[in-house]
Amino acid sequence: MPSLHLAQEPSLPQRVREAIARQEDRSERLIGWVQLAIVVTFGLLYLLTPKTSGPDAPFQPVPYILGIYLVLTVIRIAWSYRARLPDWSLAFSSLFDIGLLMLLIWSFHLQYDQPPSFYLKAPTLLYVFIFIGLRALRFDPRFVLLTGVLGALGWGVMILFVVASEGGDMMITRDYVEYMTGNALLLGAEFDKIISILMVTFIISAALWRGRQLLVRSVAEGIAAEELSRFFAPKVAQHIKGAEETISAGEGQLREAAVVFLDLRGFTRLVEQEEPAGVMTLLSDYQARIIPVLQRHGGSIDKFLGDGIMASFGAAEQSPTYAADALRALEDVLFEAERWQAEREAEGLSAPRVNGALTTGTVLFGAVGDKSWLEITVIGDPVNLSAKLEKHNKVSGTRGLVTMEALAQARAQGYVGAAPVRELVSETVEGVAEPLRLGILAE
After folding, report:
1. What is the pTM of this model?
2. Mind listing the pLDDT tens digit for each residue in 21-52?
3. Which one, of 307, 322, 308, 336, lies nearest residue 235 by Cα?
4. Which residues have CB under 8 Å from 33's CB, separation 6+?
5. How far apart are CA 122 and CA 112, in angstroms?
6. pLDDT of residue 214
7. Picking from 78-82, 123-127, 390-394, 416-420, which range would have the lowest pLDDT averaged per residue?
8. Among 374, 332, 329, which Cα is nearest to 236's?
9. pLDDT by residue (tens digit) across 264-303?
């Protein structure tokens, strides 16, 4: 159940509110562990240091207070791991912390057998700032305000108790020395404490309010970036994220890269015959099998062209083995495509053949578009040639083609083929002026 504070932010999408709530859950667990560390630390100090009251003191409240606080802290930690802590429990925790602290301070005049004004000198009041600071870990100013206001009110009640129990004006002094050396009450000094508590509370709350705005924005932008990154290849997304300046249309870098084009043969005819749902399922299944293979070898998916896939190697991120990586990827893609085709045929489903082609050369990697819309893409002769070679598979009766120049580069970069590559010499490719020397990866 989201907190009331998140419910008051209706403009946030549900997934963003859930992400912030998860952050708050982790903060509550952190607060619990910090509280446990505090109570254990003070418990050890109490056990190891000499006692400030004599052995005949009528009352020793510290062990009881620490014991109660330890038990409740353990319960709080266990609860925070089992479920989301509701707002009322966090408010009660603040009330209990301040109430327990004030009870401890109040008990000092009984422990040391002194008038009630004695406890007003106790430095233990400073612990109220620990409780205020703990609430700051949640990035929710409401609970910091609540804890600070409770602390100020609690100390005000303690002052009123002293005035009521010790004769009112008779205990009040304007002499600072008398206040410091006796049990007289200096109202200005006590009001200073209250003002200090409230000032620290308001300052931290203001800082937290600003911090929460940044948290909300950060979580919202983080989720948006995560969602948008699904529309980009990981290396392209990293390029956008790591850019020193805002990426603009017309910017680009020349890179030596490899380009792979893949296509489903006969897909157009299949679209005319199959139901739309069946076509989309086939595409989704095909892409789910092929894309991980390309990415495993370092390929970046540049774009989807219907049933076509264009991937680049060494464009988004420079690589000394771009050609070898691309050729290994194309080999594995064609092998995986055969398995995919056989599985679909065994199930009586349409099973189009996957064709592919690979080229290498100098490409321009950059952004195209305008101020309102940008696309990170790869441009150059290798891109155009790869697309033409992929279509040439139909003419040559092959499934995978590579230029001999790209094959030589891949071998120089450490590529060792799974099978011999048969060469096609002086192959005429539609749209290419000069005959090409091509290698056949699969037929």
Report:
1. 0.54
2. 777 788 888 888 888 888 888 778 777 766 66
3. 322
4. 77
5. 12
6. 77
7. 416-420
8. 374
9. 888 878 877 788 888 888 888 888 899 899 989 988 888 8
Per-residue pLDDT, 259: 93
Q: Which residues pair with 377 in a beta bridge?
A: 366
Cβ atoms of 323 and 359 closer than 8 Å: no
Distances, alpha carbon 433 to alpha carbons 154, 359, 426, 428, 429, in Å: 90, 16, 12, 8, 8
Annotated domain spans of the chain: 4-229, 245-442
* Mean of pLDDT values over 375-402: 88
* Two structure tokens written together for 22: 């998860």
- Residues 394, 265 contacting (CB under 8 angstroms): yes
Q: What is the pLDDT of residue 1?
A: 39
User: Does the domain made of 245-442 have the CATH classification 1.10.1760.20?
Assistant: no
Structure confidence at residue 34 (pLDDT) = 85
And the tokens for 232? 């980009």
For the beta carbon of residue 272, count every other beta carbon within 10 angstroms.
7
3-state per-residue secondary structure call for the chain: CCCHHHHCCCCCCHHHHHHHHHHHHHHHHHHHHHHHHHHHHHHHHHHHCCCCCCCCCCCCCHHHHHHHHHHHHHHHHHHHHHCCCCHHHHHHHHHHHHHHHHHHHHCHHHHCCCCHHHHHHCHHHHHHHHHHHHHHCCCCHHHHHHHHHHHHHHHHHHHHHHHHHCCHHHHECCCHHHHHHCCCECHHHHHHHHHHHHHHHHHHHHHHHHHHHHHHHHHHHHHHHHHHHCCCCHHHHHHHHCCCCCCCCCCEEEEEEEEEEEEECCHHHHHHHCCHHHHHHHHHHHHHHHHHHHHHCCCEEEEEECCEEEEEECCCCCCCCHHHHHHHHHHHHHHHHHHHHHHHHHCCCCCCCEEEEEEEEEEEEEEEECCCCEEEEEECHHHHHHHHHHHHHHHHCCCEEEEHHHHHHHHHCCCCCCCCCEEEEEECCCCCCCCEEEEEEEC
Q: Are strands 354-369 and 308-313 parallel, antiparallel or unpaired?
A: unpaired
